[in-house]
Design brief:
The protein has one domain: Rossmann fold (3-Layer(aba) Sandwich). The chain is built from 10 helices and 7 strands. It starts with 9 loop residues before the first strand and ends with a helix.
Length: about 260
């Protein structure tokens, strides 16, 4: 339950081994279901995984494609992580696509929040020029009228595109100007915010990504201090579709080694 009384939809993959708790944040137009290929493999390795449907996404069907404010998202993350801390197991954080932006923004503002490891999957910190050029309309309207800047074709050219992504009823097809405003507020100065985050960080980039601009992302990552690792996996922006086994193995190896 969120601080304002909103019911938070959280998909769980619980493990009896309880080696740790992993909070996994999905991307801009997706939802928790998109992360099953990765979450189920991490669960099999002995970790419980929680993936919340961000406000306006997935099971939050009351306001699809709309977010009221950045503060609401930050408050939601407080509630989720407070719950995880009560479990008492080591906490690991993963952000995919724009979920990485959301996570970095939150951690930069909450530097006392403790976690064991952080993983960024094809993060949207530095989008490619084509995505930037698809300039989003921002404003105060809660009505979803705007086409998302990320084309669904950029996630995968594999079979999951036609069988899962295209017909997915919960995929966001339109965004509100207010949603776009929140996205913009969170996504500014990502390099500065990333530098404020302290902890072991794993960066996973897709070799054929048409959404994330890999070179500036890697340059910002290389400037970070502390324990870090970067790996490339084959495929497009949707690494959970194109390389789920490789991604999951890298994550499990990373969090168990720290």
């Amino acid at each position: 339950m969120a601080a304002d009384g909103t019911e938070l939809a959280i998909r769980r993959w619980d493990s009896a081994d309880q080696k740790g708790v992993v909070v996994l944040l999905h991307g801009l137009i997706s939802h928790a279901g998109w992360m099953d290929n990765i979450a189920s493999r991490i669960q099999a390795a002995g970790f419980s995984v929680l993936c919340p449907d961000r406000r306006g996404s997935g099971q939050h069907t009351k306001t699809p494609g709309d977010i009221s404010s950045t503060d609401d998202l930050l408050s939601d993350m407080d509630q989720i992580l407070d719950h995880c801390e009560q479990i008492g197991a080591p906490l690991h954080l993963i952000g995919s696509c724009w979920g990485a932006n959301y996570l970095i923004h939150y951690l930069a503002r909450n530097r006392l929040r403790r976690f064991e490891t952080l993983c960024l999957l094809a993060p949207g910190l530095f989008p490619r020029q084509e995505v930037i050029d698809a300039a989003a309309i921002t404003g105060d309207s809660p009505e979803p009228t705007c086409t998302p800047p990320v084309p669904i074709e950029a996630f995968t050219s594999g079979s999951d595109f036609e069988s899962y992504i295209v017909p997915d009823p919960y995929r966001l097809r339109l965004l509100s100007p207010r949603f776009n405003r929140v996205v913009g507020e969170i996504s500014t100065f990502m390099g500065v915010k990333l530098a404020k985050v302290r902890g072991p960080i794993l960066l996973i980039l897709a070799e054929d990504d048409r959404v994330t601009d890999n070179p500036p992302t890697l340059r910002a990552f290389e400037l970070l201090r502390g324990t870090k690792k970067c790996v490339y996996v084959p495929g497009e922006h949707g690494v959970q579709f194109d390389a789920p086994a490789s991604v999951s193995n890298e994550i499990v190896e990373w969090i168990t080694a720290q």
